Amino acid sequence: MERYLSIQEAAEKWGVSKRRVNQYCVEGRVSGAQRIGKAWAIPFDAEKPGDPRKQKKQSVNLKQTKVKELFSGFMPLMNTPFEAGHCLETIKNMKEGQKKDIAMAEYYYFSGQAEKAMKKTELYLSAADKEIRLSTCWIFAYSCLTMGRIDHARHALQEIQNTLANDGKTKPSVHAVEAFVAFGAAVLLHLPLPKEMPSTEEFLPLLAPGIRAFALYVQAHYLYLKEEYEHSAGIVEATLAMGASNYPIPAIYLHLVAVMDYMSLKQPKKAKFHLLAAWDIARLDDLIEGFGEHHGLLGAMLEAEIKPKWPKDFKRIIDITYRFSSGWRRVHNPITGHDVADDLTTTEFAIAMLAARGWTTQEIAKHLNISANTVKDHISEAMKKLQVENRKDLKKYMLQ
Question: Is residue 134 a contact partner of residue 178, using CB atoms and an 8 Å limit?
Fold first, then answer.
């Protein structure tokens, strides 16, 4: 009779957390694992899933490998599989040159070091290599937002959108990168999409695996903004199940948009799973930028789960939130004509977000483990600052 291990036993055997073992199983990376109710039965002789950097490429990936070579200079860190905790080691092992410099700039940005990212990318804003230049403009634009250099950010964002207005002779593969960058910048800043925008069906197949995973995060984010939460969550779950978790940066962002979806669907248990999955990946390499960028959209989940256990990291996330949000609004509000609230505390904003999504006072109180009166006080203060008279009016000042 075949012997099986529980999640706890497998975690102890492999030297990882129970949550990581569960994630392995959900992603189909444990051979022979069987779901029994809400638990997993893991074959006794099952091996711990290996470091994706060392996994052999199968024949089905040959086409992807050929495509990947076309994008060797575009967002190299995002497009590199590495085991959580080995980010800097992965960059160190890259060949000296522009690609390595851009990868380091990516690390600076995704670890909340916007000033270093800005200085690193500033050197390549006029690079001859289009993929290097596009990578630079994207990283530079978001770094400038965080640093309050709004004119510089606008210029870089405009350069990104201008790449679509070419003479039509660009290779389809490079045009796919241009489309992805322009689409991503528009969606993540909640701005109007470019007029000349190819469908995702056209450019997704041309993207390398890691970039494709992040592009699917952008697509899921776009569906979230359209309030198609179940569809968005479905894209996230499918993308992770198909190997996106091998690419830590896209995986973090995918998990975070799933948190947003499930909080909007009033499914906090699923939202918690995805938040902690993202946190398990991010904290080992200090890749915390995404948590700051999504703070308001995470619907108070950070307040409930990260703040009590990792207070210092939570404070850093809040610092990122304030800096990024300030620049974000200065680009978003004038272009869209929608005034997103900028004078609420992070707690007021998070609670107002939940209230705007239809959560009751009691549901918010239970989620945050605070009293109903405290919730009412925060909502009243938010309404007072925004000069609105009822909860329905909060929504127009909140992120969608």
Answer: yes
* Identity at 165, one-letter amino acid code: A
pTM of the prediction?
0.74
In this structure, are residues 202 and 66 in contact, taking their beta carbons and an 8 Å threshold? no
Nearest Cα neighbor of 234 from 223, 243, 248, 245 is 223
pLDDT tens figures, 350-395: 788 788 777 888 888 887 778 889 988 988 888 888 787 777 777 7
DSSP 86: -
Contact call for residues 391 and 360 (beta carbons, < 8 A): no
Among candidate residues 92, 95, 57, 91, the one with its CA nearest the CA of residue 77: 91
Phi, psi of 98 (to 5 degrees): -60, -40
Closest listed residue to residue 117, CA positions, set 143, 137, 92: 143
Which residues does residue 40 pair with via DSSP β-bridges, in sequence order?
35
Q: Which residues contact 42 (CB under 8 A, 6 or more apart)?
A: 4, 5, 6, 7, 9, 10, 21, 25, 30, 32, 33
**Residue extents of the structural domains in the chain:** 4-43, 61-251
Contacts of 113 (CB under 8 A, 6+ apart): none
Cα separation, 268 vs 284, whole angstroms: 24
Question: Is the Cβ–Cβ distance between 142 and 109 less than 8 Å?
Answer: yes
Rounded CA separation 234/372 (Å)? 33
Burial class (CB in 10 A: 0-12, 13-18, 19+), 366: middle
Q: Look at the block and give the residue holding tokens 């990578």.
A: 135
